[in-house]
Amino acid sequence: ILPALTTSGIIYSHIKVGMHNGNYFLNYLCGLLDVMNPYPAPHSVLVMDNCRIHHIDGVEELC
């Protein structure tokens, strides 16, 4: 389960059997960004840690 959490709960999630890879993560981000809003509206800031998959090609361009 890969959820997107806010202070009010889960706004987006994917369930997948097996490991996540870069392509899956980019597809997940596309879906997540569809439910996010422009800043400064609620759900407008995406925070990711320093996990390797967060630095793959395409993430910065997508966000």
What report would you give on this structure?
With 63 residues, this protein is α+β, with helices and mostly antiparallel strands. It is 29% helix and 17% strand. It has two helices and two strands; from the N terminus they run E-E-H-H. A two-stranded antiparallel sheet has the order 1-2. The protein is globular and about 30 Å long. The two termini are 21 Å apart.
Structural class: alpha+beta
Contiguous low-pLDDT stretches (5 residues minimum) are none
Q: Characterize the biggest β-sheet.
A: 2 strands, antiparallel
Name the strands of the widest sheet in spatial order. Answer: 1-2
Give the overall shape, derived from the CA principal axes: globular
Number of strands: 2
The total of helices stands at 2
- On the 0 to 100 scale, the average pLDDT is 93
Order of helices and strands: EEHH
Protein name: Tc1-like transposase DDE domain-containing protein
